[in-house]
Amino acid sequence: MTPRARHPVAHLANLDLNLLVALRELLRERNVTRAAARIGVSQPAASAALSRLRRHFDDELLIRARSGYTLSPLAMQLADQVETVCAAAERLFATGRAFDPSTSRREFTLLMADYTIAVLGRHLSTTIGAQAPGVDLHLRLVREAFALDFAETITLIDGMVSPPVEKFELPSVRSVELFTDRWVCIADAANPDVDGGITIERLAELPWVAPFQPDRGNPTAAPMSRQLALFGIRPEIRVRVESYQAVPYLVAGTDRVALLQERLATQVAGLLGLRVLPCPGDPEPIVERLWWHADRDGDPAHRWLRETVIAAAARL
């Protein structure tokens, strides 16, 4: 007779959910003594928790090295997951409580591109620091994989800042516009190929730096790639990079060009000796929105977070 499968609720009830916090701090600190201090338990208690976690996962998790401990391959996979699960649990049990930002110790998790952090980060950080000195902010960099699993990802975080994408338009998802930007071309100030301006035909001939291009010939959902597709060009991409902020540093001092958001381009143009040129053609405007799951609507803490992000964007 085939054994009956264990009911998932019963399985969850048999788990010691305190181990989630222990796992998070052990993977963060990579040190049993420091993890114990973070959790507020004795060092032997933290060691016992690590032993239980090792038995549960059948993995060492923390591997002794010359300078301390390193994470096992499985532990590296678990690190992001446990952060997301703990943040979701904290939100769940905080929902419905009155929220006082001046005394709260809550942590909020937001997904943003590094471009958005460069533009919005200082205003957001100073606003939260002034109003809520005990609140922790966990900023995770947006990756294309998040967009592929957006319906699930948005339920596990507090919000994401991103331009609109069709798959984000779900009945369970809310959004509000934060700020707008536009695409510009950047080139080294000494690059003679852009003297007198630039045309789409010229862009097609020049070497490029491009963010978030997986490899030659493969399409991507990255906003800059969409603009190239709208222009009808497939330029020669010499440098691919998983970052917007890195792009101007890889253009400076070379004959390469790139498309970049104007707010970011103007921040670094003087420092790096770059020329910022109007983008030819008719590029789409950049509209950055804050996205969150409708389940957060009734949470006073989340309402404060949304208002804080909107207020920070209004200062741009």
Automatic annotation (TrEMBL):
Q: Does the keyword Transcription regulation apply?
A: yes
Give the source's domain of life in one word: Bacteria
What InterPro entries has UniProt attached to this entry? Answer: LysR-type_TF, LysR_HTH_N, LysR_subst-bd, WH-like_DNA-bd_sf, WH_DNA-bd_sf, YidZ_PBP2
Going by the UniProt record, its keywords in alphabetical order are: DNA-binding, Transcription, Transcription regulation
Q: What is the protein's given name?
A: DNA-binding transcriptional LysR family regulator
Q: Which residues form the HTH lysR-type domain?
A: 15-72
Q: Which CDD domains match?
A: PBP2_Nitroaromatics_like
Known SUPFAM superfamilies for this protein?
Periplasmic binding protein-like II, Winged helix' DNA-binding domain
Record-annotated membrane-spanning stretches: none
Q: Which family does it belong to?
A: Belongs to the LysR transcriptional regulatory family.
Native organism: Pseudonocardia hierapolitana
Record flagged with keyword Endoplasmic reticulum: no
Q: Name one GO molecular function term.
A: DNA binding
